[in-house]
Structure prediction request, 429 residues.
Amino acid sequence: MANVLFTNVRVIDGTGAPPYPAEVLVQGNRISRITRGARTAGLSGVTVIDGAGATLMPGMVEAHTHFAWNNAATLDQIQLMPTEEHTLWTAGVAKTYLDHGWTSCVGAATAKPRLDVVVRNAINEGLIPGPRYLAASQEITVAGSLGDDMLPHLPYPEFSFGQVVSGPEEMRKVVRMFLKYGVDSIKLNLSGDNLTPASDAKTTWMSDEEVAMAVRETKLRGKRVAVHARSCASIKQAVRHGCEVIYHCSFTDEEALDLLEANKDKVFVAPGLSVIVRLLYDGAEWGFPREKAVALGYEEELEAVEQSLRAMHKRGVRVLPGGDYGFAWARHGENAMDLQYLVKYAGMTPMEALLSATKHGGEIMMMGGELGQVKEGFLADMLLVDGDPLADLSLLLEPRKLLAIMKDGVFCKEPEMRSSRTRWSLPAA
Ligand SMILES: [Zn+2]
Prediction:
């Protein structure tokens, strides 16, 4: 691990402060010194990266990832991939995220019991490249809801990407199995979803007894519960039971918003807008012409989620980017689209969208005191960006605009070196 000095960079530090010119010194895996403005001379034993005015910002955090989703157009295709291929696929996707500037990811559910855990462990052991990662369980669901894909005449659980339970005792058994495997979070499908018309987004499926059991068992081991909650009743259920990570949050009323606001220091919301937006506007290519997407309820849901997100953002609820990439209509790697969606649909400024991906990202990784900001003492997860993301968030979609990607003080993508010491020669004074 070399010591690295970034000179001549414009820092977006992830605190919300305006960008400033500075030099940033990385020693080991941490940011050890930030010097505003001035140029340091004569540091020995340090690799100097002359940023030539490029932007240095915290690595991004994806709050709702499914490494095991395989860029298919149907849910069935996820499950039909055999385990061996699926493991290699999942490992490959982890690298894709890192290559696109996501230095941390929160797993939101995996497709077979141990995929996420195995990939997280391999990353941590240095066997494969990947972001910092919190491994998820499969989606736990109930008969008939999202994640139960068993056919009446082929009642084999392996057809489902979820684990189907009925009653608190079955819930306890499945939760304990995933905790034994070593997941960081348990995922519950509280509501339905418009991709499964028989259990649409406004419906609520899990009983309070089942949710309470899952939360109790999970918290006993100090782990976290994340939920799929699109319906209004499911959002309230999630907050009442102390589930910290709430995905989607589409349909709210005043009571739901009050509950979220009262718990804003505990809960994180990651809406995962890609499915709704892409199917509604570009779905024809994948078998969802506009009329079909509207009939499935996506127009109504987009209107609802926009209102909900704007209200949550005004009330100070943390809304984070990420969600449900890994389908044909929104492939892995396109995740930075979410930053633009947060501006368009949640009413964020570009700076607020960046904060949601960095400062709040560190918090959802449960490392808020040391991750997600360019700050002395923080872990050195940083991106060197060619241009100003605040002026154009779409820069973050393009890997070639990410001049360097550093995770834990190590370059995952090294800046191109034009001489032995600097990336660029300094512009003429
Ligand atoms: Zn999801």
Summary: Residues 419-429 have pLDDT under 50 and may be disordered. The CA atoms of residues 73 and 127 lie 30 Å apart. The first strand starts at residue 3 and ends at 11. The longest helix spans residues 83-99.
